[in-house]
Every structure is written in C-alpha cells, then in structure tokens.
Amino acid sequence: MTNAYCDLALFKSGGALNITGDSHDRRLLALLEEASRVIDGYCNRHFYVLKATRRFEANWWSAGMQQLLVPDLIAVDTVRVAARFDGPPPEPRWRAASYRLYPLDAAPDRPWGRPHTRMAIDPVCTPQCRRTDCHALVEISGR
User: Is the whole-model pTM more than 0.70?
Assistant: First the structure.
C-alpha cells in the first residue's frame, strides 16, 4: 500500500495516460508517490494517516494548563512529559500527562471534520524549577 494521492489504475486510464500494459507500473507508482510528497511539502502537511511517536520541545513560562501546538492529530495513544531544569538530564524521567485536544469540535474521523492542532497539558513546572522558564520534552504517540 502506498501513500500516493492518485490510484495507479486512474493514472493509467484513458482519461490520463492511456496505458494498458503493466511493464512500467513500478516507475509510474514511484512518480505518483513523488508527486504526492511534493504536494505534502507545498502544503506543509500530509493527507494520509501516519501512526508514529514524535517528540516536541516545549518552553513554558506560566503555571496552569500549558498549550502545545502539534501537527495534524487524529487520535492520541499516550502523552508523556519529561521536564528538565538545567539542561537535558542524562536519563529523562518521563511521566504520563493528562491532556485535552483542541479544537473541541475537530472530528478528525469524519469526512467533514478537521484534525486537532493543539493540546492542553497539565503543568510540567515543579517547585524544583527555580528559573522563570520551564523547558520540557513532550512525547506523543498516536495517529
């Protein structure tokens, strides 16, 4: 299965290239995928579901719920936070974080819906954080 935004059969159909054989299918499929990645780059997002774990560096200055901007998000499996105070620790201490996805009316699983683009996370600053800012590494697993 590919992440091309056009089907190979449609690309080869009479309305497009009018190709009946299959001797060049691998090359045509590679071209479709390459064109799809160009679209991704131009739009600065992708239009297929990717299940992955990504890390984001957050720099928060206030107490209370903290907002983190994220790439298009459909669903979250886990969110973990590793706070660091004077540079990255040798072994980050991860803790599960409670969160809320925004916008609340996103509905990314519906055809008319849009993805979540930010999340509110419980505070990561602790009494140990003596400086005015608190840096944290946020790890999100999901789609």
Answer: yes
